[in-house]
Design goal:
The complex is a heterodimer of chains A (451) and B (190). Chain A has 451 residues and is α/β, with parallel strands linked by helices. Chain A contains 14 helices and 13 strands.
């Protein structure tokens, strides 16, 4: 007995949502590869990545073709390098990074993560050494992403790490000045990294997983836009509760497809299926912007009054739709607002409706921090640290995952336009209020949350 | 009692009570529906059903009785005995099938369904369900075809080929795998 699909009852009016998977990330356990011999460590890492992820790109392409669901990015995350590289010199870390970059290139991956440090309580000698090496690591590689967790709700904020990272971000920008400081776009400062995945912005998926795990991230942007357009065609006066229902259904559909794709890939790679991350995020596909989505809801310009309420509506609807769809759904559903990847946000900054302060406040309603924000190249390290500290404070107090990726654009001032590569696109440099807050940050120590 | 199965189609003017009359006729013959599908197109009712009757019931009796019942509705009856049909031998190795939904839509022009169904036949693809509509005011049509595709056929290439060959006539094709459509339509575990 088969059920006749709805499309067969109304082919003129039926249409399927645009379905696609934003990223497939393969988590590889490399914890057993720690080796005091640099050559042995690099060789083993390279072989492990190719052995486990060599087929990832091909499998993703095959599954995408079989299911008719495009997969936009293939990524790998390996066990944190600081656990494998204790006893190695800063130069060794550069060689390890190049090894990862080479392996990622050979396996046709879009990015590889592993340079991840947990520093919410404090920093070991080796953690400090790894963070200090990051500007060179990111300058000498193309696919390696790095992340440092500096705050959690239980530990509070490690202000020594925040202070150090302000300098690291600035130094990374200087080290990649020939690319307008794009290296800083691959360095994330994180708060409340979820222990059970999915891996976010260069972080490790967390402990307690099998040796090989497939994580899937899906952008609900396309299905949500499609659902709202369909509803407004039928009922132009639809109220917000009705549109929230449509968003919930679209999130359900996006999550279900992600699970289907993830299960198929995991089966073919003999891996476990990890968490499914359903978020509202622009993909690398041109033309996808949250600004257009909000316009459909009735918010004329992103950042104008009403934006926060609209984001709250979307965020809650995505979360409920995703959690109903799959038991593997991640507990949080975020709204990613990466200015460098969203042409609509760039337009909003140009038009003056969107400033850094707005983006910072959206964290309270589901925004995932300050992601890929181009700031003036001459921003002092102390000011960068102060912005990070503010975001981490919100993350720690509100218990939400937060990402800060600030990109000091070398040679550019606020209001100037910059063109990066295809991945990051065009942007206008945002003004960053520079004050003497650096002194506050430099006091160091820890900000407790009392939670 | 041993039963014998037939496949029956009835087409008649659609009026309230026709299905009741048909079911009563089957009941009177000691038979009943096994699998049944009903559709209404314009003012006509049509039904195709697998039905069963006692093996001893003569086929002519069955046909005559149902025709008599359907006469007030202007119904046409066809009753087939599957045992009399010439069927191809089952393949030695079972053919694995993937089910897809093909939606074609666009400017209405003659010959589209002919070309598409012919292309499907060339590939050995069985069309297992079909529904189409035309919007005369807008001059557009849309049809959805349920396809049983033998595994190994490059559906991506076929999809591209259809869009390429008929896209210039304003016809667009969308192809979806059934498991994807089911996944997004119902919350059952995957």
């Amino acid at each position: 007995m088969t059920t006749r699909h709805a499309a067969l009852a109304a082919p003129l009016t039926w249409s399927a949502p645009p379905l696609e998977v934003r990223t497939v990330t393969l988590g590889i356990n490399a914890g057993d590869l720690a080796n005091r011999n640099l050559h042995g460590l690099c060789e083993n890492l390279y072989q492990r990545i190719l052995e486990k992820a060599g087929a990832l790109s091909q499998v993703c392409s095959a599954v995408a073709a079989d299911l008719g669901v495009p997969i936009l990015q293939r990524r790998v995350t390996i066990s944190p390098i600081d656990r494998l590289s204790e006893g190695h010199s800063p130069d060794d870390l550069i060689n390890i990074a190049r090894t990862l970059d080479g392996a990622a290139s050979s396996a046709h991956l879009d990015q590889i993560s592993g340079f991840f440090v947990r520093a919410q309580h404090g920093m070991s000698k080796w953690s400090r050494q790894l963070i200090a090496a990051l500007p060179t690591v990111l300058a000498q590689t193309a696919r390696v992403h790095a992340a440092v967790e500096v705050a959690t709700s239980s530990a509070g904020i490690n202000m020594d790490a925040v202070d150090l990272l302000g300098k690291t971000i600035r130094d990374t920008s200087i080290a990649t000045a020939d690319r307008f400081g794009a290296g800083a776009a691959r360095l994330a400062v994180l708060g409340n990294v979820p222990d059970d995945g999915p891996p976010i912005a260069g972080a490790f998926a967390g402990d307690g997983w099998n040796d090989l795990v497939v994580f899937v991230s899906v952008s609900a942007m396309g299905p949500i836009r499609h659902a709202i357009e369909q509803r407004l065609q039928v009922d132009p006066q639809a109220d917000l509760a009705c549109l929230a229902g449509e968003i919930r259904s679209a999130s359900f559909q996006a999550t279900r497809v992600a699970e289907l794709v993830g299960r198929e890939i995991a089966t073919r790679l003999h891996a476990d299926l990890g968490k499914i991350d359903v978020s509202l995020a622009p993909t690398i596909r041109p033309g996808q912007t949250i600004a257009e989505l909000l316009k459909l809801l009735g918010v004329p310009a992103f950042g104008s009054p009403g934006t926060t309420a609209a984001l709250a509506l979307i965020s809650s609807a995505i979360r409920t739709g995703g959690q109903f769809a799959s038991t593997s759904s991640a507990s949080e559903a975020s709204i990613l607002l990466p200015v460098l990847r969203d042409a609509g946000l760039v337009s909003a900054t140009e038009a003056g409706s969107l400033a850094l302060e707005h983006l910072a406040s959206f964290s309270a309603v589901g925004g995932q921090g300050l992601d890929l924000i181009p700031i003036p190249g001459d921003t002092p390290a102390g000011a960068i640290s102060a912005v990070i500290a503010d975001q981490m404070a919100m993350a720690a107090i509100n218990g939400r995952t937060t990402v800060v990726r600030l990109v000091p654009v070398a040679g550019r001032s606020a209001g100037e336009r910059v063109t990066f590569d295809r991945d990051l696109g065009d942007a206008v440099v945002l003004a960053l209020p520079v004050s003497s807050s650096g002194k506050f940050v430099m006091r160091g120590g820890r900000i407790p949350t009392g939670l | 009692m041993v039963k014998k199965q037939y496949v029956m189609t009835v087409m008649a003017t659609n009026r309230v009570g026709i299905l009741a009359a048909l079911a009563t006729a089957l009941d009177e013959l000691g038979g009943g529906f096994v699998d049944v599908s009903l559709a209404i197109m314009r003012q006509y009712f049509t039904i195709i059903a697998a039905v069963e009757f006692p093996e001893t019931r003569d086929t002519e009796v069955i046909v005559d009785h149902i025709r008599a019942v359907c006469r007030p509705f202007g119904g046409d009856l066809v009753l087939k005995d599957p045992a009399n049909e010439l069927l191809l031998d089952d393949p030695e190795v079972p053919v694995l099938i993937d089910n897809y939904l093909l939606r074609m839509s666009g400017k209405d022009s003659p010959g589209v369904l002919r070309r598409v169904s012919f292309r499907m036949a060339q590939e050995g693809i069985d069309i297992t369900d079909l529904y189409g509509e035309r919007d005369d005011a807008a001059g557009v049509f849309a049809s959805c075809l349920q396809l049983a595709v033998p595994r190994g056929i490059d559906v991506v290439r076929l999809h591209q080929e259809l869009n390429h060959s008929l896209g210039s006539q304003g016809i667009a094709f969308e192809l979806y795998r059934n498991d994807v459509l089911q996944a997004i339509s119902q919350p059952a575990p995957l």
